[in-house]
Design a protein that fits this description.
By secondary structure, the chain is of the alpha/beta class. The chain is built from 14 helices and 14 strands. Helix 2 packs across helix 6. The model has no long low-confidence stretch (mean pLDDT about 95). The structure holds FE3-S4 cluster. FE3-S4 cluster (F3S) binds next to strand 10 and helix 13.
């Protein structure tokens, strides 16, 4: 593998122990994936921010990096953490967890990473440009970045993305290269609605059908950012899709792409029903969690409009709305309406919070959460459209 003189100097420890550690990791990954060089990146987005997921080992790893003088060299944002920084008591979080979570956020801040924590950085401070090389580590966000914005990133792991952020470089392989961005199969969609929930179901069905690869959708029109994030999140969780194209919609497929000879996968009523059945394992729930991925400003307006004039009568079920601090701050009137029903939590989510210490049965309108709540939070799941879920609390 070719390293420039500067890159070699970092590897030799001339720029400090933190940068050296980062270069060791990035070059090791480059070797594993057969990259012959590193590529400069414009931004990074880091996962591994919740104390629940990284534990004391992660805390120590971050402390060592900070002690070694590590600092990010490109704009970098952070994924959701295990609690709302101010309202963690409403989430039934213990003081011990809160104290360690705040230390983790502080350590990331010391490395120069923005301390707002969201899985929709593109709806806030980190908007990727077409063709930008980036190193992102949140499976839904990086798929949106690749597909909806036409940026270039692999499915980075947390430590790999952090190392790339420190160096401003990542290994040049996979979706950084033109030849790997071509479609690998065509998705013919039938019976498709236009709601965000429909796109979540579509993502679940496609993820289940193809696992990995680069799907090419035909027949989808004018995809919104809300639809793109639901589709991306579901395909990344039900499979491991990190890049998709939609003919006439997404930037690399605006004028169509060559798909001659590719396998076709048909998604229709049967596949939608199978997606729904796969994720539904319970009827009565203790918690309804909305906002996976984090709610956008438009979704906050839509939910508040749905809730206006209604009353929460079912006291046995809690409802949480998850979004970013930035979005919450932009929607004070919506927040007021929504908080008659349950807290609008910032910078956290139902999956990376330790909900399993309080709840066993959770409802969601997100296929991604539907996949992860059983495995990462030991939950039985009710998966349904938001309008149906809201009926549960009336
Ligand atoms: Fe975001 Fe948590 Fe879902 S990080 S994509 S809300 S699982």
């Amino acid at each position: 593998m070719q390293l420039t003189r500067d890159e070699q100097a970092i590897l030799d420890g001339e720029k400090g122990a933190g940068a050296q550690k980062a270069m060791e990791l990035v070059t090791a990954l480059a070797k594993v994936y057969g990259a012959d060089s590193l590529v400069d990146i414009k931004s990074a987005h880091l996962s591994g921010a919740s104390y629940k997921t990284i534990g004391d080992g992660g805390l120590k790893y971050l402390s060592d990096l900070v002690d070694g003088g590590a600092k990010v060299s490109v704009p970098s944002t952070l994924n959701p953490v295990g609690m709302d920084r101010e309202r963690w008591k409403e989430m039934h979080i213990s003081p011990e967890f809160a104290e360690k979570q705040l230390r983790i956020i502080d350590l990331y801040g010391k490395m120069g990473i923005r301390k707002t924590c969201s899985c929709t950085p593109y709806a806030g401070p980190n908007v990727p440009g077409f063709g930008d090389h980036i190193a992102w580590a949140e499976s839904s966000a990086l798929s949106v970045a690749n597909s909806f914005f036409g940026a270039r990133t692999n499915r980075e792991g947390g430590p790999g993305a952090l190392a790339a952020a420190i160096l401003g470089k990542t290994a040049n392989y996979g979706y950084h290269l033109d030849e790997n961005r071509r479609p690998t199969c065509v998705i013919d969609v039938e019976d498709m609605g236009g709601s965000v929930f429909d796109y979540s179901m579509l993502g679940q069905a496609v993820g289940m059908a193809m696992g990995k690869g680069v799907p090419y959708f035909r027949g989808l029109k004018d995809i919104t950012i809300e639809q793109a994030k639901a589709l991306s999140a579901a395909m990344a969780a039900a499979g491991s899709v990190a890049l998709w194209h939609a003919e006439g919609c997404t930037p690399e497929a605006r004028n169509g792409l060559d798909v001659e000879g590719l396998e076709h996968i048909h998604i229709g009523k049967k596949e939608f029903d199978a997606s729904y059945d796969k994720l539904n394992t319970v009827d009565d729930v203790q918690l309804i969690a909305i906002g996976c991925p984090h709610l956008t400003v438009k979704e906050m307006h839509d939910i508040a409009a749905m809730l206006k004039g209604r009353k929460k009568r079912n006291k046995d079920v809690e409802i949480w709305f998850c979004t970013s601090e930035e979005v919450r701050a932009q929607c004070p009137d919506d927040v007021k309406v929504m908080e008659e029903f349950g807290p609008v939590l910032a910078d956290t989510c139902m999956v990376v919070a330790p909900i399993e210490s309080t709840f066993q049965r959770t409802a969601t309108n997100s296929a991604k959460a539907g996949n992860y709540l059983p495995t990462l939070c030991s939950q039985k799941v009710l998966f349904s459209d938001i309008s149906d879920l809201l009926k549960v609390i009336e």
